[in-house]
Amino acid sequence: MRIMKRTFSLAAAGGLTLLIAAVGPAAAPTSALKGHNSNAPVDVNADRMEVQDRADRAMFVGNVHVKQDELTLDTARLTIAYSSAGKIQIQRLDAAGGVVVRSPTETGRGNFGIYDLNRKLITLIGDVRLDRGGSSLMGQRLVIDLNSGRAVVDGGPPGVNGAGGRVSGHFTVPQKNG
Predict the structure, then answer these.
(1) How far apart are CA 150 and CA 1, in angstroms?
(2) What CA–CA distance (Å, rounded) separates 109 from 75?
(3) pTM score above 0.70
Protein backbone atom coordinates (compact mmCIF):
# COMPACT_ATOMS: atom_id res chain seq x y z
CA MET A 1 0.00 0.00 0.00
CA ARG A 2 1.28 3.46 -0.93
CA ILE A 3 0.31 6.74 0.69
CA MET A 4 0.81 10.00 -1.18
CA LYS A 5 -0.15 13.64 -0.60
CA ARG A 6 -1.25 16.57 -2.74
CA THR A 7 -1.94 16.51 -6.49
CA PHE A 8 -2.77 13.59 -8.75
CA SER A 9 -3.52 14.11 -12.44
CA LEU A 10 -5.46 11.61 -14.53
CA ALA A 11 -5.82 11.63 -18.29
CA ALA A 12 -7.74 8.36 -18.66
CA ALA A 13 -9.91 7.32 -21.58
CA GLY A 14 -13.38 8.67 -21.02
CA GLY A 15 -12.10 11.00 -18.32
CA LEU A 16 -14.22 12.49 -15.63
CA THR A 17 -17.29 14.00 -17.20
CA LEU A 18 -19.22 15.47 -14.37
CA LEU A 19 -22.71 16.61 -14.36
CA ILE A 20 -25.25 19.12 -14.09
CA ALA A 21 -28.74 19.02 -15.50
CA ALA A 22 -30.25 22.12 -17.02
CA VAL A 23 -33.36 23.40 -15.27
CA GLY A 24 -35.76 25.79 -16.90
CA PRO A 25 -39.46 26.54 -16.76
CA ALA A 26 -40.04 25.92 -20.47
CA ALA A 27 -38.03 22.74 -21.00
CA ALA A 28 -37.69 19.25 -19.58
CA PRO A 29 -34.44 18.69 -17.70
CA THR A 30 -31.63 17.85 -20.10
CA SER A 31 -27.91 17.43 -19.71
CA ALA A 32 -25.89 20.62 -19.72
CA LEU A 33 -22.82 18.70 -20.86
CA LYS A 34 -23.24 19.23 -24.59
CA GLY A 35 -19.90 20.38 -25.91
CA HIS A 36 -18.03 19.33 -22.74
CA ASN A 37 -14.59 17.93 -23.56
CA SER A 38 -14.70 14.54 -21.82
CA ASN A 39 -11.25 13.75 -23.24
CA ALA A 40 -9.63 16.60 -21.31
CA PRO A 41 -7.21 15.63 -18.53
CA VAL A 42 -8.62 15.23 -15.03
CA ASP A 43 -6.82 16.94 -12.16
CA VAL A 44 -7.42 15.84 -8.57
CA ASN A 45 -6.12 17.68 -5.49
CA ALA A 46 -6.59 16.46 -1.93
CA ASP A 47 -4.98 16.59 1.48
CA ARG A 48 -4.23 12.87 1.32
CA MET A 49 -4.17 10.10 -1.28
CA GLU A 50 -3.95 6.36 -0.74
CA VAL A 51 -3.53 3.82 -3.55
CA GLN A 52 -4.63 0.24 -2.98
CA ASP A 53 -3.01 -1.53 -5.95
CA ARG A 54 -4.42 -4.99 -5.20
CA ALA A 55 -7.95 -3.57 -5.06
CA ASP A 56 -7.45 -1.28 -8.11
CA ARG A 57 -8.62 1.66 -6.06
CA ALA A 58 -7.34 5.14 -5.18
CA MET A 59 -8.83 7.19 -2.35
CA PHE A 60 -8.54 10.95 -1.99
CA VAL A 61 -9.43 12.44 1.39
CA GLY A 62 -9.75 15.99 2.67
CA ASN A 63 -10.66 19.06 0.65
CA VAL A 64 -10.90 17.06 -2.58
CA HIS A 65 -11.09 19.19 -5.72
CA VAL A 66 -11.53 17.62 -9.17
CA LYS A 67 -11.35 19.62 -12.40
CA GLN A 68 -11.87 18.65 -16.01
CA ASP A 69 -12.15 21.39 -18.58
CA GLU A 70 -14.80 23.76 -17.14
CA LEU A 71 -16.38 21.27 -14.71
CA THR A 72 -15.38 20.93 -11.07
CA LEU A 73 -16.25 18.63 -8.17
CA ASP A 74 -15.60 19.40 -4.51
CA THR A 75 -16.10 16.79 -1.79
CA ALA A 76 -14.64 15.47 1.44
CA ARG A 77 -13.77 12.01 0.06
CA LEU A 78 -13.37 10.53 -3.43
CA THR A 79 -12.75 6.90 -4.33
CA ILE A 80 -11.64 6.04 -7.87
CA ALA A 81 -12.06 2.43 -9.00
CA TYR A 82 -9.94 1.53 -11.99
CA SER A 83 -8.80 -1.36 -14.15
CA SER A 84 -5.06 -1.81 -14.38
CA ALA A 85 -4.94 -4.33 -17.23
CA GLY A 86 -2.39 -2.71 -19.56
CA LYS A 87 -2.95 0.98 -18.84
CA ILE A 88 -5.07 2.47 -16.08
CA GLN A 89 -8.73 2.88 -17.07
CA ILE A 90 -11.06 4.65 -14.63
CA GLN A 91 -14.26 2.65 -14.11
CA ARG A 92 -16.13 4.54 -11.39
CA LEU A 93 -15.89 7.56 -9.11
CA ASP A 94 -17.61 7.67 -5.72
CA ALA A 95 -17.78 10.98 -3.85
CA ALA A 96 -18.98 11.37 -0.27
CA GLY A 97 -19.41 14.29 2.05
CA GLY A 98 -20.96 17.49 0.79
CA VAL A 99 -20.59 16.85 -2.94
CA VAL A 100 -20.72 20.04 -5.06
CA VAL A 101 -20.48 19.87 -8.85
CA ARG A 102 -20.20 23.05 -10.92
CA SER A 103 -20.35 23.83 -14.61
CA PRO A 104 -20.20 27.39 -15.96
CA THR A 105 -24.01 27.67 -15.68
CA GLU A 106 -25.21 25.17 -13.03
CA THR A 107 -24.41 23.93 -9.56
CA GLY A 108 -25.51 20.55 -8.22
CA ARG A 109 -25.26 19.49 -4.58
CA GLY A 110 -25.85 16.20 -2.79
CA ASN A 111 -24.59 14.05 0.05
CA PHE A 112 -23.09 11.43 -2.29
CA GLY A 113 -22.10 11.32 -5.96
CA ILE A 114 -21.45 8.37 -8.27
CA TYR A 115 -20.09 8.46 -11.80
CA ASP A 116 -20.20 5.14 -13.65
CA LEU A 117 -17.93 5.71 -16.66
CA ASN A 118 -18.85 2.42 -18.34
CA ARG A 119 -22.58 3.17 -18.33
CA LYS A 120 -22.06 6.95 -18.63
CA LEU A 121 -24.38 7.66 -15.69
CA ILE A 122 -23.88 10.36 -13.08
CA THR A 123 -25.91 10.21 -9.88
CA LEU A 124 -26.24 12.58 -6.93
CA ILE A 125 -27.98 11.16 -3.85
CA GLY A 126 -29.33 12.71 -0.66
CA ASP A 127 -30.59 16.26 -0.22
CA VAL A 128 -30.04 17.00 -3.89
CA ARG A 129 -30.27 20.59 -5.07
CA LEU A 130 -29.75 21.78 -8.61
CA ASP A 131 -29.40 25.53 -9.30
CA ARG A 132 -29.31 27.35 -12.62
CA GLY A 133 -29.69 31.09 -12.79
CA GLY A 134 -32.51 31.94 -10.39
CA SER A 135 -34.16 28.51 -10.72
CA SER A 136 -33.67 25.53 -8.43
CA LEU A 137 -34.86 21.95 -8.17
CA MET A 138 -34.72 19.79 -5.03
CA GLY A 139 -35.13 16.07 -4.48
CA GLN A 140 -33.36 13.02 -3.10
CA ARG A 141 -31.75 11.64 -6.26
CA LEU A 142 -30.57 13.10 -9.57
CA VAL A 143 -29.53 10.77 -12.40
CA ILE A 144 -28.02 12.03 -15.64
CA ASP A 145 -27.63 9.70 -18.60
CA LEU A 146 -24.75 11.12 -20.64
CA ASN A 147 -25.70 8.97 -23.66
CA SER A 148 -29.24 10.33 -24.03
CA GLY A 149 -28.83 13.67 -22.20
CA ARG A 150 -31.82 12.79 -20.00
CA ALA A 151 -31.85 14.00 -16.38
CA VAL A 152 -34.29 12.59 -13.81
CA VAL A 153 -34.91 13.89 -10.28
CA ASP A 154 -36.65 11.63 -7.77
CA GLY A 155 -38.20 12.79 -4.51
CA GLY A 156 -37.43 9.70 -2.48
CA PRO A 157 -39.74 7.78 -0.19
CA PRO A 158 -42.55 9.63 1.63
CA GLY A 159 -41.44 11.33 4.81
CA VAL A 160 -37.86 11.89 3.66
CA ASN A 161 -36.86 15.47 4.37
CA GLY A 162 -39.56 18.13 4.57
CA ALA A 163 -40.73 17.47 1.00
CA GLY A 164 -42.64 14.28 1.87
CA GLY A 165 -40.94 12.26 -0.85
CA ARG A 166 -41.70 14.76 -3.60
CA VAL A 167 -39.59 16.80 -5.99
CA SER A 168 -39.89 20.55 -5.53
CA GLY A 169 -38.73 23.44 -7.63
CA HIS A 170 -38.59 27.21 -7.83
CA PHE A 171 -38.37 28.61 -11.35
CA THR A 172 -37.77 32.12 -12.59
CA VAL A 173 -40.16 33.46 -15.20
CA PRO A 174 -38.93 35.59 -18.09
CA GLN A 175 -40.17 39.13 -17.61
CA LYS A 176 -42.00 40.70 -20.54
CA ASN A 177 -42.02 44.43 -21.05
CA GLY A 178 -45.36 46.09 -21.81
Answers:
(1) 40
(2) 10
(3) yes
